[in-house]
Protein: General L-amino acid transport system permease protein
Amino acid sequence: MAKTYHKPTFIERIRANYFSTWLDTTLTLGFGALVLWVLLGLFDWAFLNAVWSEAEREQCGHGSGGACWAVIDARWRLIFFGLYPFEEQWRSAIACIAMVVTGALSCVPWFWSARRLPVLWLVGFAIFYVLMRGGLFGLTPVSEQNWGGLSLTLFIFASVTLIGMPMAIVFALLRRSHLPMIAGTMGVIIDTIRSLPLLSIMFTFAIVLPFVLPGWAVGDKLYRVIVGYALFFACYQAEIIRGGMQALPAGQEEAAQALGMGYWHRIGYIVLPQAFRNALPPTINQLVITFKETSLVVIIGFFEVLASGNAAYGTAEWNFAHIEVYCFVALIYFTFVFALSRYGAYLERRLAVAAR
Structure:
């Protein structure tokens, strides 16, 4: 008579994994006590003994023993909006909301088409840019030099993604061209750019490029940095997409060609959809890295959210509250990155079910 399989319960798995021997039990209890002690201390510092209001600023560091979140209450506008004019900061806030809503709507399956998704992002980006730049619909013009904070971080990330993703698709297609000259040249370009640090590319486009360009082509430093960052992103993403293409069975494209489908129909309807499905995990990872590395623009003089955080405690009044400011900035990054990673995990599960 065959034995029936007994699936262990949660308690049985915990006992087998953490309390099976006296050594495992000792280590589990000791490590658990250490973690609990750290969490209780952190909770006490961050919540129980914290100072929350700017009106209670005098209590910071004088017997409270907790975090001084009063610096966030006093300087949150600087962190979120940077150098943007105070009376116009409502525009920056609405622009950030527009980009977040655009990202949320792009998660809705109805927008997952080659026509709707680009239109959605172009419309959302146009709303963001008009609100930030002004000059239309009676809005006061605000130059890019006065942009900053979270809105500048979102602008750089969205711009790099919108420019870099189409470039990555073109680079990947050129890299797998059947013409050796085209494929070899594209391979050299991609490998050269990928071998360079992102910071050196930003410096080149921000500082060096104006010396070799004609005056009419120089443009604003912010846009030159975005183009350089998009090129860097495109080279990495192109290799990710090309890996997704190479994972496809060779017979699929050959069968489509035998059926009389043209090149662009084969690429648009057969190759790219499956390539992006195969390359989804590294693509999400690349987007996460891109969002976090927007902080590098602080090195070349841009006032993004991390630089705004530095300025928030960079006064004699708040110079002791750097830990609280960095925790708040880290929470901003965590919110966006965690949401992006969870959405990527959801897409993986959805596409895995659809592929069965």
In short: The radius of gyration is 26 Å. The chain has 15 helices and no strands.
